[in-house]
Amino acid sequence: MHESNVQAASTSAWGGGARPFSMGSKKLGMWLFIVSDTLTFASMLLAYSYERLCNPDWPRPFEFNPAILKGSGLTAILLASSLTMVFAVAAAARNNRKATVRWILATMVFGIAFVLLHMTEWFKLFSEGVTPWSNPWGVPLFGATFFGITGLHMLHVTIGVIYLGIMAAGFGTGHWSAEDVEVSGLYWHFVDLVWMFVFPMIYLMSVKI
Amino acid sequence: MSSDAHSSETHQTGTASLFVTVWVGLLFLTAVEVFLAYLEYMRLHPAQMLGLLVGLSVLKAGLIMSYFMHLKFEKFSLVLWLVPATIFCIMMIIIFFFPDSNRLLQMRLPH
Prior knowledge:
Shape of chain A: elongated
Largest sheet of chain A: none
Shape of chain B: flat
CATH class of chain A: Mainly Alpha
Strand content of chain B: under 5%
Number of helices of chain B: 4
Helix content of chain A: over 70%
Radius of gyration of chain A: 21 Å
Distance between the termini of chain A: 76 Å
Largest interface: A-B, 58 and 59 residues
Largest sheet of chain B: none
Number of domains of chain B: 2
Strand content of chain A: under 5%
Radius of gyration of chain B: 20 Å
Oligomer: heterodimer
Number of strands of chain A: 0
CATH architecture of chain A: Up-down Bundle
């Protein structure tokens, strides 16, 4: 009776013997991080929405060509990077190290392309006199919200590229496991997910008509 | 840990064609969003436009979480643990936040 109780405790989730939700601690930790980061971005985007709605004279500087076309291209690039990351995770699950590294490298190339293309958008706005604290069109908070939100997102993409680089190097040499690749994939898809809100809310809400 | 054990810890499900279909769907929804942005010719109020765009973005986020992040293939208890708590927190921010933004708009002096 006593032995069976001990065994039940050691195998129950609350006894620490079983993995909650049948997943490893790294993956669970990444999900928790994603929830907290979701709230960070949600707060920033909601603060932006607040300003956008209570300022009828909010600047609308984004012309279809090049800003909206470029933004759509950035979306397509990030979505393509998510697809290559899915294939990397699938290859890692099959323990196909060569294919995993190849797909992760493809994801990194898309990530770097995203950052470079987005930087051209930033420099174009700088050349038009837009800074985080002022702009030629009136509402100073436009620059603060634009650079704050897109800057935080770009920082996430940059960290993601470095993270994936470490994964590619480590998985190729057998240092990292397939679960580690899957966890890095969760992070990368989250970065993609955030952009699905940033592009319509920041760019499409301020198209020049 | 052996490589077999590593493989068993991952939760890979779904086929390549499924993921490509989801990817095409996400691109299509993005194109719809861009199209909607120019519907403002029809004088949609910014709040309505924001609601439309965020609604489509939530749909896209759902697709990414379900398929790319494999939440659809995880235990449903994980979904119940993560999603309602996140939505609750975001709703709390919205409830205490947005009525005030509309109030500020109405308090403006006429031009």
